[in-house]
Every structure is written in C-alpha cells, then in structure tokens.
Amino acid sequence: MKAILAIAILPLLFANYITIVSPVEQIVQDNSTIFLGNAAPGESIYIEAYSKTIFNNTVYDIGWSQMKAIALPEGWESTPTKLYENPIMKLQIKIPTNAKLGMNALKIFAYNAYNKQNITFFAFVNVTNDIFDARVQNYSSSGVMQPLQYSIEIRNKGISDDPFVINCSLPIGCSSIPVVVLHNTTRKVTYELILPDAKKYNFNISISLLYNPKLIKNFGVVGDVKQEIKYDFIATSQGALISPIVEAPIYNLLALIFKIFKI
After folding, report:
1. What are the φ and ψ backbone dihedral angles of 244, each rounded to 5 degrees?
2. How far apart are CA 2 and CA 235, in angstroms?
3. Per residue in 89-123, pLDDT tens?
4. Which end of the chain has the lower number of beta carbons within 10 A, N or C?
5. Domain that holds residue 30
6. Which residues, other chains included, contact 238 with Cβ-Cβ below 8 Å and sequence gap of 6+?
7. Are residue 173 and residue 202 in the same domain, yes or no?
8. 166 and 209 in one domain?
9. Do 48 and 149 fall within a single domain?
10. Sign for the pseudo-dihedral over CA of 97, 98, 101, 104
11. Phi then psi for 254, rounded to 5 degrees?
C-alpha cells in the first residue's frame, strides 16, 4: 500500500509548479502567469517562493534550488535568489525611475539541481504613479521650543516595501524622516518639529518615495506656536528642575490640569 501511495505522490513531487507566497499567494505551474500587483517607478519588489515542494500540507525535501529572472523590460534589474535558499527564496526586482507605465512582463525561471527539473512562468507588474494615499492632520499648537505634532496616515497601495519620506517646507525645524509602510497596508505615524518663535506658521508637510522623490504629495498645515503659561508648565514638567522634590509635584499637577481641561 505504501509503495502504491509513493508512486501516486511521486509525479506531484516532481511536477512543474512553484508556490509563490509574496507579494501574492498562488501556486504557479510551468508556462503559466501570475499578476503580482502595482509598483511605482524606482521601487524594488521581491518575489518570494517556497524552496521546498509542498503537497497536502506536507513539506518534502525535493524542491527548487534557485529562482531568477531571465527576461526583463528594458532598464529593469534583478538579483537572483541565493543558491539553495531555504525555506523562502527571495528574488529581487528593481524597477527604473523611467520605467514604462502600465503592465510589464517578467520571465521567471526556477530549477532543481537534484532532479534537473525546471519551471518558467511569467509575472506581470502594473507600473503606476498612483501608489499611495495619505492623510495629514492640518493643525497643531504648542509652546515656543516645544514640539508640534502632526498625525499622518499612509496607505501603501503597491507591492514594494521601500520606505516613504516625510518632510516639511520650512527653512528651520524640519527633518527628513523615513517611514516603512509594508506593501498593501496602512500605517499611522506622528511627525514632530520644534519652532523658535511664537506665531502661526503656514507650511507644507510632504510625503514622497525614498527612491523616487518626484512621486510626492504635499499637504498644507498650520503650526500655531504660542507664548502661554500653560505650555511653560507642560515644558517644565518634562524638563530638569532646580529643586525637583518641591517643584516637580506642583508643575506636574498644573500641566495635568491644563491637559485635562484643555485650558
């Protein structure tokens, strides 16, 4: 009985298919196609696949030795998986900043050095500039030399995990912050900056792709820096005190009152 079962399973173990696990999950057969998703010019993507053969939720040692791209659109680059990479093979594809928009085909090849089998399939990537959405809090207030805080939500609509960059347009106080938002996910972050003068600042907060700064979105915001005693108490409650045993409870209590009652 075991011999019959082994004979029945053997063709499946040596069958020409590969299990793609990212950026989408799909079993791909020889000479078939797979749509990976959207990516922007300048981004890198990874095609990840099991190096082992999986049948009926059982992992077998007979699998794939390496996966690589053998035909790419003009200007595209790739880095093949490591030889005998285990358990997940990761094939890197680099899209040039001047890539043609629209659907692009990649010819992918995997082989098994043990049984001399190989598989070829076509992966499609839609190159688009519409790769992320974002929302930015448009108003924040603070005291002089205290951080203005802006809540930012970034939705990565593509299949790349390359970082985004958050920055602002003021000549002082701004900093460039890289933020990783995993493919097909949304992430909330807080952007902070400190400004020296008590006044209202009108400026832009920008979000762009690290490897393609031309893909950028700007959001107009207001920073309201005030010279008010409540901000001094809040600042003092977070700083160094001359007589901390006496002063700390007082300042902390006042800061808490200002925050709770939004005075």
Report:
1. -60, -35
2. 75
3. 999 999 999 999 999 999 999 998 887 889 999 99
4. N
5. 2-127
6. none
7. yes
8. yes
9. no
10. negative
11. -65, -40
